[in-house]
Design a protein that fits this description.
Elements: E1 9-11, H1 21-37, H2 53-56, E2 61-65, H3 68-75, E3 79-87, E4 95-96, E5 98-103, E6 117-121, H4 127-139, E7 147-152, H5 156-164, E8 170-174, H6 175-184, E9 191-196, E10 200-201, E11 205-208, H7 212-228, H8 231-237, E12 239-243, H9 251-267
Parallel strand pairs: 1-2, 6-7, 6-8
Antiparallel strand pairs: 2-11, 3-11, 3-12, 4-10, 5-8, 5-9
Length: 268
């Protein structure tokens, strides 16, 4: 097949923990071959960066995973949605949720016990780490004033460690990250889950804005690559499949966020 996209970039930053980096690289190798088979020119390696936003917006983006909130807030007009990975968590295919976590010795048995709590989070535009937490508080009728302070710790893993060290009191961790943490982060031994947020569409795979037939080929190529992975690699990545999702599926995330946006911005 002809070389349709001779310059491209790809990144899979959202669950790229060091303990499973070799599995992520194996997944990329399978994706790379699958993309080549349908006429694309993928990069040899995925890009790893602390700030993926510029790559998410790149006109040369072949494939990346992003978060649902940045997708609806900053990216949807400039990218095409390839689909949403399904993970081995107790949720519908292509959906996920957050677990609300505290230290086992915190005395916080449920959200009604919050009082001048310090909330730890990864990024102000995180669906799982911020928006889902405050939407859950609102749905449960818990005043945001119960949160005394918000501390940004830059990653879900750092938030988990901050909870274990008692530097923060409560946090919201996405369910896939929580499963990885239970496998690889001993700090989880000190923590308890006190609530689950309602499900939303999971972390989407995106590409630069393309024609539908091109996006369809990418979608099928991802399915083929996932199917080619050994069961052990699938298990290490918690991957179970790829859901066919559309931009409209993510609009509830935006509507929820818009309802509490000003309150969140005043707190963070």
């Amino acid at each position: 097949m002809p070389d349709l996209y001779p310059i491209s970039v790809a990144l899979l930053p959202m669950y790229d923990w060091p303990e499973i980096r070799d599995a992520t690289d194996s997944f990329w190798a399978a994706l790379r071959e699958s993309f080549r088979a349908v006429g694309f020119s993928p990069p040899e390696d995925i890009t790893r960066t602390e700030d993926p936003l510029e790559h998410w917006r790149s006109p040369n983006l072949l494939l990346a995973q992003t978060c649902g909130l940045p997708y609806v807030e900053r990216l949807a007009n400039d990218v095409s949605l390839v689909g949403t990975p399904a993970y081995d968590i107790d949720c519908g295919a292509g959906s996920y949720f957050s677990v609300i976590v505290v230290h086992k010795d915190s005395g916080i048995e449920n959200l009604k016990f919050l009082d001048s709590a310090i909330f730890g989070y990864n990024d102000p535009l995180s669906q799982s780490g911020v928006a889902s937490f405050f939407f859950h508080l609102a749905a449960e009728g818990v005043p945001f004033q119960k949160i005394h302070r918000c501390d940004r710790l830059m990653s879900h893993r750092a938030v988990i460690k901050g909870l274990a060290d008692r530097r923060i009191d409560i946090a919201s961790i996405d369910a896939v990250t929580w499963e990885l943490a239970k496998r690889y982060e001993r700090a989880t031994d000190k923590l308890s889950v006190i609530a689950h947020t309602s499900p939303t569409p999971g972390l989407p795979l995106i590409t630069a804005r393309r024609e539908k037939n091109e996006v369809d080929r990418l979608h099928q190529a991802v399915i083929d690559a996932m199917a080619s992975l050994p069961c052990e690699t699938q298990d290490r990545l918690l991957l179970t499949g790829l859901a066919a999702t559309e931009e409209a599926d993510y609009q509830p995330i935006k509507r929820r966020y818009d309802n509490i946006r000003s309150d969140i911005e005043n707190l963070l």
